[in-house]
Amino acid sequence: MEPKQFTIVFIIQEQNILLGLKKRGIGVGKWNGFGGKVEANETIEDAAKRELREECGLNCTSLTKVGVIQFDFVGQPPLWDVHVFKSHEYSGEPQETEEMKPQWFSFEDIPYKTMWPDDEYWYPYLLSGKRFNAYFKFQGMEYIIEQRITELPSLDDHKI
Q1: Which of 67, 2, 13 is nearest to 35 (CA)?
Q2: CA distances from 160 to 18, 23, 63 (A)
Q3: Mean pLDDT throughout 27-56?
């Protein structure tokens, strides 16, 4: 069975990151980036831009792919491939939507205690501009039972 394809986008300005408080669906009550499922006949990059627009009202003018995280939930196939993007270039102002409540955080004040448990392992790669691949195996939605992260060579901030 092929992995399900998802995206997540992070808007970064200097030492600040825009996160959204999830208001419904998987991850309700957790802070996260903006993203979701890749729809049929949609590229991964187009899905990332669409999800950002739908979840916080921002239009992204360029994206940089920084990683792919594969999630494995015991007893719940298929795997999830989450394509991680960052951007410094966007238009509009963050707006609360039915799904997310956006808020800026300094890198030092990221609320890891109210985020997915894997975030504290791979966010340092994102925040320091490193590219990576990661794998997390979960028992349920809160317990990591296996993990690995591999740093990848830089693409010199290749934009898509």
Answers
A1: 67
A2: 20, 29, 5
A3: 96
Check residue 61 and give its pLDDT.
85
DSSP letters for the chain? -PPEEEEEEEEEETTEEEEEEE-SSTTTT-EE-EEEEPPTT--HHHHHHHHHHHHH--EES--EEEEEEEEEETTS-S-EEEEEEEES-EES-----SSEEEEEEEGGG--GGGB-TTHHHHHHHHHTT-EEEEEEEEETTTEEEEEEEEEE---SS---
State pLDDT tens for residues 48-95: 999 999 999 999 989 999 999 999 999 998 999 999 999 999 999 999
Tokens 């809160």 locate to: 142
pTM (two decimals):
0.93
The closest of 25, 52, 26, 48 to 38, measured between CA atoms, is: 48
Distance of CA 143 to the CA centre of its chain: 19
